[in-house]
């Protein structure tokens, strides 16, 4: 989604802002722009398309100024175009605003502002903010933004500069992330720390309905009611090296290959083999209630939802707890009735997904307790939940989520195992599970070592326009995730299905032009999957099977086979998803897709 980066300091702002924009590219965008204050004037430049287009626009210009704001836009109101790109300005061109989010009462405000003489130049909701701040400005930019916050409904992370307040940037937040960076040569603000991690790892998170003023030497945060806030500085754990490609052609491939390490990071310091009990310090604050709870609801979107769906099966296997998995976008509008002591687990890589945030807020209102499994430290979900576990997977930059899926599965398994051991799970089962979890990083490496073979399979099938992914039980959500990955990055139409549903409809689609990826490791529903594969073959469908090593039976049935090492049944998804990720990646490559930034998609969906 849209990205914000700002700088005020003693260095030239232009190069810093452009570098910040480049770091935000992965979020998905369709236009970009910046505005720089030189002490007397503000110059604004915008272009449609990539940041490279903005850079060539700026080439040869001598842009001076040490205060500036910059933005990547992902269109909501108004088509992607130069006139709709941010920053937006008011009639007198003295206010410049960048904005993430949606102003919901913009239509009403626009009519009112027009009556008062405002001249609109774009189709965006954001432009409202520039005009309102202009009308509200009386020499104090912070105050003008505060008044504007009272007038607008909707969500925003915004940053503003004013010609007559030349040394400062004002930022404000309601529902869209913003973080301040404390550098040696000034202050930064961004929607995402990756935009400033090159310059500083000291950050302060802004919370909803807060406003902050940044100058070269100082920053101050206050509430919408002007009450000052003193917030602790946090240190970001990762650096620029984590945001670099490291020799890989794409972030998606780099992140797929990082999985042995990200799984290790998810279990580091959390496994107590002797007693067969994981240690999860992050959930200890609620442990006394959690260990008595018999109702869990996992809430998430997209890939995180599919990880949660595997988690449900794992909890059912290892604990006595009743687990529901819910799509946050639906859950938030449902009539919610919770049994006493119900815990919600919000699963989110970014910790900023608007639907997931709204869902946990609604659940809290209805009396549920909140836990989070989140990758981005200090993100909204991590702050709004009572307790939780961080993934420590490092930044995920490819728009399509990969490494976070296996990290989430690992943590959900640890949580289930911990609760299970306080219920009916025996010491032997606990120790066996921990041993199997410890082997996962090496086993993932083994699957990755087949990348060349998987690439060859992708080359063979990438021209087919429709694919089916089938799995059962733990691997049914993997089938859904495999189909999601393929459609996201290759634009091939794919459907994921629980294999048992085939006969109830989808089998009508099977013909030689529709390949099926069958996820069929050795488990207790293996024979049922074999029957499904035979039915597909009987209708001349092509089958790519993901199987446990040494499965000769499938080799006779399937057209192509990818092997995974043997593990416990409930851990299979951590291995079976890897070939699905690689198939999607390589198909996208053969089809020349923009793998890290697929069309229409954005990393971190911060609007509804
Ligand atoms: C798919 C993908 C999305 C996200 C979803 C939730 O590859 O990346 O489906 O999984 O938008 O995002 P988080 O986990 O940040 O809440």
Q: How would you portray this structure in words?
A:
The chain is α/β, with parallel strands linked by helices and 608 residues long. It folds into three domains: 3-241, Aminohydrolase, N-terminal nucleophile (Ntn) domain (Glutamine Phosphoribosylpyrophosphate, subunit 1, domain 1), CATH 3.60.20.10; 245-447, Rossmann fold (3-Layer(aba) Sandwich), CATH 3.40.50.10490; 450-597, Rossmann fold (3-Layer(aba) Sandwich). The protein contains 19 helices and 27 strands. An eight-stranded antiparallel β-sheet has the order 3-2-4-1-10-9-11-15, covered by helices on one side. A seven-stranded antiparallel β-sheet has the order 5-6-7-8-12-13-14, with helices on one face. Strands 19-18-20-21-22 form a five-stranded parallel β-sheet, sandwiched between helices. Strand 26, helix 18 (552-557) and strand 27 form a beta-alpha-beta unit. Helix 3 packs across helix 4. The chain is globular and about 75 Å long. It starts with a strand and ends in an 18-residue tail after the last helix. The model has no long low-confidence stretch (mean pLDDT 94). The structure holds fructose -6-phosphate (F6R). Fructose -6-phosphate binds at residues 301-304, 348-350, 353, 356, 400-401, 484, 488, 604-605. Fructose -6-phosphate (F6R) binds at residues 301-304, 348-350, 353, 356, 400-401, 484, 488, 604-605.
């Amino acid at each position: 989604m849209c990205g914000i980066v700002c700088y005020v300091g003693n260095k030239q702002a232009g190069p810093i802002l452009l570098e910040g924009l480049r770091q935000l590219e992965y979020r998905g965008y369709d236009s970009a722009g910046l505005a720089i204050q030189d002490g007397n004037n503000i110059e604004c430049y915008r272009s449609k398309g990539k940041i490279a287009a903005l850079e060539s626009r700026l080439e040869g210009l001598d842009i001076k100024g040490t205060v500036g704001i910059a933005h990547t836009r992902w269109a909501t109101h108004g088509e992607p175009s130069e006139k709709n790109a941010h920053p937006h300005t008011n009639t007198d061109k003295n206010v410049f605003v960048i904005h993430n989010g949606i102003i919901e009462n913009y239509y009403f405000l626009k009519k009112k502002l027009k009556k008062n003489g405002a001249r609109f130049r774009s189709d965006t909701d954001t432009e409202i903010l520039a005009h309102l701040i202009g009308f509200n400005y009386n020499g104090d930019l912070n105050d003008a933004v505060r008044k504007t916050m009272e007038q607008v409904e909707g969500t925003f992370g915004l940053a503003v500069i004013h010609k007559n307040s030349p040394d400062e940037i004002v930022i404000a937040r309601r529902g869209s992330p913003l973080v301040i960076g404390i550098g040696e040569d000034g202050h930064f603000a961004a929607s995402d720390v990756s935009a400033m991690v090159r310059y500083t790892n000291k950050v302060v998170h802004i919370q909803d309905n807060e406003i902050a003023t940044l100058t070269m030497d100082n920053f101050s945060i206050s509430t919408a009611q002007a009450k000052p806030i003193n917030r602790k500085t946090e240190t970001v754990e990762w650096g620029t090296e984590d945001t670099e490609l490291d020799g890989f052609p794409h972030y998606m491939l780099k992140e797929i290959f990082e999985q042995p390490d990200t799984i290790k990071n998810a279990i580091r310091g959390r496994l107590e083999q002797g007693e067969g009990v994981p240690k999860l310090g992050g959930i200890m604050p609620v442990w006394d209630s959690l260990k008595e709870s018999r109702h869990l609801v996992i809430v998430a979107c997209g890939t995180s939802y599919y990880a949660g769906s595997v988690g449900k099966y794992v909890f059912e296997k290892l604990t006595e707890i009743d687990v529901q998995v819910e799509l946050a976008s639906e859950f938030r509008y449902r009539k919610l009735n919770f049994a006493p002591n119900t815990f919600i687990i919000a699963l989110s890589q970014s910790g900023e997904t608007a639907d997931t945030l709204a869902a946990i807020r609604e659940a809290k209102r209805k009396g549920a307790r909140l836990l989070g499994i989140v990758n981005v430290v200090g993100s909204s979900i991590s702050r709004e939940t009572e307790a939780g576990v961080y993934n420590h997977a490092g930044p995920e930059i490819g728009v399509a989520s990969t490494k976070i899926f296996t990290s989430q599965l690992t943590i959900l398994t640890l949580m289930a195992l911990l609760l299970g051991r306080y219920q009916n799970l025996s010491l032997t089962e606990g120790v066996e599970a921990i041993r199997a979890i410890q082997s996962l990083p090496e086993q993932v490496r083994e699957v990755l070592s087949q990348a060349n073979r998987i690439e060859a399979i992708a080359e063979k099938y990438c021209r087919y326009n429709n694919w089916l992914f089938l799995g059962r039980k733990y691997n049914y959500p993997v089938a859904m995730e495999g189909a999601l990955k393929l459609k996201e990055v290759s634009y091939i139409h794919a459907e994921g299905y629980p294999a048992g549903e085939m006969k109830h409809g989808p089998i009508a689609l099977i013909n030689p032009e529709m390949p099926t990826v069958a996820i069929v490791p050795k488990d207790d529903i293996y024979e049922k999957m074999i029957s499904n594969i035979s039915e597909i073959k009987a209708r001349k469908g092509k089958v790519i099977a993901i199987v446990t090593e040494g499965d000769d039976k499938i080799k006779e049935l399937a057209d192509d086979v990818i092997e995974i090492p043997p593990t416990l049944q409930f851990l299979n998804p951590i291995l079976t998803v890897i070939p699905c990720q690689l198939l999607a990646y390589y198909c996208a490559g053969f089809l020349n897709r923009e793998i890290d930034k697929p069309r229409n998609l954005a990393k971190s969906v911060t609007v509804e």
